[in-house]
Amino acid sequence: MTTALPTPPDVIRCAYAELVVTDLQASKWFYTELLGLVVTHETEDTLYLRAFEEYLHHSLVVRQGPVAALAKFAYRVRTPGDLDLAEEYYRALDVPVRRVPAGTTRGIGEAVQVVDPLGFPVEFFHEAEHVERFTQRYDVHGAGAISRLDHFNVVTPDVPAARAYYEGLGFKVSEDIEDERGTVYAAWMYRKPTVHDVALTGGDGPRMHHIAFATHERSQILHLCDHLGAVRRSDQIERGPGRHGVSNAFYLYLLDPDGHRIEIYTHDYYTGDPDNPVITWDVHDNQRRDWWGNPVVPSWYANASTVLDLDGNPRAVVERTDDREADVTIGADGFSYTRKDDEAVGFKVGHQV
Amino acid sequence: MTTALPTPPDVIRCAYAELVVTDLQASKWFYTELLGLVVTHETEDTLYLRAFEEYLHHSLVVRQGPVAALAKFAYRVRTPGDLDLAEEYYRALDVPVRRVPAGTTRGIGEAVQVVDPLGFPVEFFHEAEHVERFTQRYDVHGAGAISRLDHFNVVTPDVPAARAYYEGLGFKVSEDIEDERGTVYAAWMYRKPTVHDVALTGGDGPRMHHIAFATHERSQILHLCDHLGAVRRSDQIERGPGRHGVSNAFYLYLLDPDGHRIEIYTHDYYTGDPDNPVITWDVHDNQRRDWWGNPVVPSWYANASTVLDLDGNPRAVVERTDDREADVTIGADGFSYTRKDDEAVGFKVGHQV
Amino acid sequence: MTTALPTPPDVIRCAYAELVVTDLQASKWFYTELLGLVVTHETEDTLYLRAFEEYLHHSLVVRQGPVAALAKFAYRVRTPGDLDLAEEYYRALDVPVRRVPAGTTRGIGEAVQVVDPLGFPVEFFHEAEHVERFTQRYDVHGAGAISRLDHFNVVTPDVPAARAYYEGLGFKVSEDIEDERGTVYAAWMYRKPTVHDVALTGGDGPRMHHIAFATHERSQILHLCDHLGAVRRSDQIERGPGRHGVSNAFYLYLLDPDGHRIEIYTHDYYTGDPDNPVITWDVHDNQRRDWWGNPVVPSWYANASTVLDLDGNPRAVVERTDDREADVTIGADGFSYTRKDDEAVGFKVGHQV
Amino acid sequence: MTTALPTPPDVIRCAYAELVVTDLQASKWFYTELLGLVVTHETEDTLYLRAFEEYLHHSLVVRQGPVAALAKFAYRVRTPGDLDLAEEYYRALDVPVRRVPAGTTRGIGEAVQVVDPLGFPVEFFHEAEHVERFTQRYDVHGAGAISRLDHFNVVTPDVPAARAYYEGLGFKVSEDIEDERGTVYAAWMYRKPTVHDVALTGGDGPRMHHIAFATHERSQILHLCDHLGAVRRSDQIERGPGRHGVSNAFYLYLLDPDGHRIEIYTHDYYTGDPDNPVITWDVHDNQRRDWWGNPVVPSWYANASTVLDLDGNPRAVVERTDDREADVTIGADGFSYTRKDDEAVGFKVGHQV
């Protein structure tokens, strides 16, 4: 990052994602019947969805298309003037930038769309249509009620470079995973005062690792598992439920019908003070990814969604050259401990391949 | 079983277990600090423990000894006269039987001790000392409060034979696991109107698979995991938490410091009507052991505790000759489905070795 | 009760109630949309309902009629032969008795209907149609999912007499409320091993105080309150949620559209051992009815549902002549303490009229 | 407010309160044994306490003194330079201001102390000592674990004037309670993106209405009630538990041994976007203060804590001249409805004096 960059836009928070799916009806079941997201608007090929405590037009767009992919991540900025700042900022970064008029995405005002330096399609907007906030519409809240979008998680080969890019945009790190030689495997970064608006996961990228929604309580997350069992779709539970070490959140990873990974998440903590302590986890700490030491399934490390460029074409992926977290923690070549300086007994019996 | 057997004793429920451990202080931390069991009495080498809603002297005895083992399972019978019935019944079964005076086990009245036909050391008693019931002692209930002993689970080679033995003793089957050829892999049997007082798990036996305690809610079970993480003992979490298919219970399996398996369990259902429907699960149904399709770790199938005879000597184990559940469900030779008649997509990605 | 009575029927548990309502559509919303009971069968004027873990045809019948009332309480008996015992037993008690053929109530086999000595219309049956048990149908479980019928609560003038009647029928007392002079205000009695199948509440009777359904967790009870708020029917919340002193159960009392009181209830304890300790509460103990000391609303003491005789006519009510719990505990003439021997500070500030 | 005021300090959030109590040992039980706050430091006459997810030295100081009172509310500001802004701002407001060196309050850096225009003793600080964050110390989290300080609630006669003062300081309104004539009864205002950092309650003031701590889940709040019942101190439960209409939070009001009101609170919502919708409640809406329509106890409206000036002297109270919420909503002269335009049936039976 050069120091000569112009002032970045003031990002409030992660605001919505747009996913391309190959079978809209299958996705509709997943997002509206299972997850219970509210349909703000529906066309023949697109669903505009929001969670119960959201009052902007949508936090998720699900659109029929030829290839399952992430079409964009959108961040909300504080003022209309931040769009000008965004435009200048990304032009200075020499990446594709375009300004689109209000309504280019239904319910969203004028916006700046870029391919960010990490290769992701990202939109910045300020104006959006307001709709009813269903905070107290307990008559339609199911047992697995979801409150709001929480964060995006992106796969990128060079985590320190990605971190520097996001720091330039005003994000701060809450937690990260490193090893004793300084290799960084992942980092969590925020604008709103939660653990993250975006997480950076080291791997071949750009790919979308997951998007995450928040609930109030753990029982709502557990119900989603029970519900999937009841309809004989438990194979859409990829990982969890469990307690993260990083973030302390209670989590669950589901796979939508196209394999897009959706996390459901609760219990993280306030990070809004300027001196919020950064927590660095050792990549070999077996409780970093799951506080209970339950193993991370290999697919969680390996699989991620294709991302599109601004013209809707799938982007090529760059390989990670640093060590991979799965390699250094799973199997014969990797190792993890439960208690530091106690490696001999620290392996979890029976859980590792 | 011959039809000429005398009237069996009227068993009320599973009542207590006695475990031999090799490091009493380590076990004391596990059973009293982590699980929060109340210490009714403590001697130099023995702990007498109960859960918060229990008013008999103990539901668990933990005793220092040379070899980690199950010393006995105890069932409570309805009347003092049932001890005579028990004595006659087991003499007719031609197994070791002895009548012991009150106080042989602290807090327990006169009892009949037998090696049952499955090879387990089992005691029948009626009288027991009453102690304070801590149902509403919320001042000492921790976040992981346990209510009561729920069931025993035994490993035995021939499940149909074991089932016939327990039916002779008045137990009924609530659920079982079979395959299309009639092989029985496990059965759940009850006297009190819950899903079980004893479960029969097919395998090399006699060995103790686990003993289980009940909580009121799932949050209490989840806290035990969080607590183990906090003290860096997450490797004592063997399996779960999860939702069983069989019994519908929310479960967690922990390993005590000697590897004795303890289940924490809630949410099963009432079975007290005489026509309570029996549920038979297909051994290939991937949701039978975990409703969410999460894999059963191999150790859960393989490991179990040694059991002692009435003189305290470890008993030899007889191999199971029927198919083993692990073999027919895990890995290249086994298979499981999430949706019947949909095997191609029914495997859970990334979870099976 | 005379000792010359014949053998009573072997009652398993409370099994179903039949309520007459004056606006079936309003009641249908309450019982199926709010409480989420499953409709087994529906005719123009009657709903047959069950909770998610029940497999008999119904645990609640709601029937359109001219006057809101309880039409009958039904207990299930262990064998068909218990119907003969019931018939003989109630004939010996010299109360109205009639034997009705299978199908008299849809889904229920042959039955014996009586007006019991307390004046309530009571049915005994053994056979009933089996239907799907929705234990794991999490796809239709809402956030306020109800598991099963738990108990009946009856208002009767003379609690000791009512207790003696139910003891004659094989019920046992788990808890009661008395004063220092021996006046009994209420008693809880059971056949199945929970705190009660029937509670006896001292007051003008025979009237139905409430019927109660059980949930697995407290969050399900809290959701019912949230749901009523969302549809602006919070005035149907009569009392609670709270924690009972008696039974330790977490509770909520709702009023159906005709004012029939429905309790939702969880967290009571196992009572199935023959020496289960009886707990006697002092009527002046301010935590007996609510462990948190929250006041009992006057309507809860005053109001109750009319009961019908076997021909469907409302029964006259007999006044209680003993002291009334409301009189001795609320207001200027009554008193309650939080800490025994500490009356001066034991009143709850601001809560008592 | 004049437009000529200097730039106000950038307030991050409410940060700590200092209470004077008359029996420190009694208070210690309440704050550390019941609420489970962590003791950062303890002297003969003062406790410095924090909740489990807090890393600043304390969020509550409890100090022995002659008269129970609020000694100060403290807000954290974003930078050291904000102290200069605070000093100038309050000097321009012509209220008592003093700058105190680091350590004046243990663990807190240099600070500016003022009597704010509403009459409350308020401190602004930036620097504070960091201590261990107990987020994942589940080994010491009890069943009623508290995460962090959430807000202050102040009683003030003129709510619109108080709102204007706090808006001048950069706070925004999330919700308020008004009547059809424009009288404002209460307002909720925030800096951090929750429903509030401070609530303004109309009444005789300056007095402290309460301070509030947040938990993750409702079960933790319910446990505090159970715990108080177990130690026979249920009379310290003043109001609740319940669900607020305003804020949607699940709540409980406790009274500490001196009558200082402490709220425990969870489930409010994100307010961090600049166009967060303001919700105005009608004072006659019976669900505004409790979504379930449960009555507000009179003491909750009437009682509040004395506040001290900067020299530790109790401040005189100014009477509210606008209508009082209790008067217009409770009893014969007030009224509330559950359903607008449906007053006849909208009263909650049996709950209003």
TrEMBL record, chains A, B, C, D:
It is an enzyme of class 1 (oxidoreductase). Residues 13-127, 148-267 form the VOC domain. GO terms for molecular function: 3,4-dihydroxyphenylacetate 2,3-dioxygenase activity. Its cofactor is Fe(2+). Keywords: Aromatic hydrocarbons catabolism, Dioxygenase, Iron, Metal-binding, Oxidoreductase. Its EC number is 1.13.11.15. Pfam families: Glyoxalase (PF00903). It comes from the Bacteria. Belongs to the extradiol ring-cleavage dioxygenase family. NCBIfam families: HpaD (TIGR02295). This is 3,4-dihydroxyphenylacetate 2,3-dioxygenase. It comes from Kineococcus halophytocola.
